[in-house]
Amino acid sequence: MDRVGLTIDDWLSEMCLVSAVTSDPDEPKDFQEAWHHPDLEARAKWRAAIKKELRCMREKGVWRKIDRRNVPPNRRLIGNKWVFKIKRDGVYRARLVALGYSQIPGVDYFDNFAPVVNDVTFRMIITRMMIEKWESMIIDVETAFLYGILEEEIYMKMPQGYWEVEGQQIDVEACCQLLKSAYGLVQAARQWWKRCIKQLKEWGFQVSKADPCLLYRKDENGICIVIMYVDDILVVGNKNALEDLKNSFEKVFTVKIDPDLKDYLGCELVVDERKQKAWMGQPSIMKKLGKQVQKVCIESEIGENSWNTRLLYSQDKG
């Protein structure tokens, strides 16, 4: 193709390669690739991540093993797959995901809507936090969806590689009956939202009439405001109120507490020491995107010094 006569449509077609910007070539595509990874160090980490995921599901009672001959004739066994991710902090994560697209509407699920906090609400709370000089923290509930209680009867095939991980002989007649929500289910996000909202109400929080994912509580410890975006929870308020909520969460859920707002919803939020200014952006995503575009430019002979690449790399120069 004549690169001088490159059309916008041609360029956009090539830019579709950037859609995988957040993927990592070192991340396995399936169970076998992770369990038998050629790099011994990576293999050990992926195996540990797989075992941790299965252990979490077992401890939370997510499913129980049954004979598939006991599955009602009007039910189908939904499949599952493993999803592997190397997080920004270097942690290797393995997630067992149910293939929700095989669920039958009206049988395997009914309601599936799960609200998320409005972006206007989010900005308003950050602004209020700076005005009031409040403290803040991010609560990361580990394997949050596994806490959701299922209201439907759902059956799933045994996890891929289960028998190999457990060192047991394959039982072709075995399958799973899900007792709690699992990642990938159509209703998973909704069931977690209902579970978390119910728990917060028990702790004395009230749901805002303006946003179903904005909750607040005022007591002798001060004011505490919670905003939810699925399983990402941001809390602002007085120091004692935040400490009390932190202790409550740790008694019920397995959580990680981060007082730094530099990684929330894939964004980096920076607030100055005097809490007078705030900046929010996605520098890590932009750097990955820049590398992908640079690669596309070189491979398509556009040249890495094209204005498109320079534009995406402008943030590195301030």
Average pLDDT, rounded to a whole number, is 83
Overall radius of gyration: 23 Å
Task: Work out the number of β strands.
Answer: 14
Order of helices and strands: HHHEEEEHEEHEHEEEEHEEEHH
What does it look like?
The chain is of the alpha+beta class. 33% of the residues lie in helices and 24% in strands. The two termini are 36 Å apart. The model is unreliable at 1-22 (pLDDT under 50).
TL;DR?
This protein is α+β, with helices and mostly antiparallel strands and 318 residues long. It contains nine helices and 14 strands.
Supply database-style keywords:
about 35% helix, 4-stranded mixed β-sheet, disordered N terminus, about 325 residues, alpha+beta
What is the topology?
Elements: H1 8-15, H2 31-35, H3 40-59, E1 63-67, E2 77-78, E3 80-86, E4 92-98, H4 119-132, E5 135-141, E6 149-156, H5 162-166, E7 174-180, H6 188-202, E8 206-207, E9 214-219, E10 222-229, E11 232-237, H7 239-252, E12 255-258, E13 268-271, E14 278-281, H8 283-299, H9 307-312
Parallel strand pairs: 2-6
Antiparallel strand pairs: 1-7, 3-4, 5-11, 5-12, 6-7, 8-9, 9-10, 10-11, 13-14
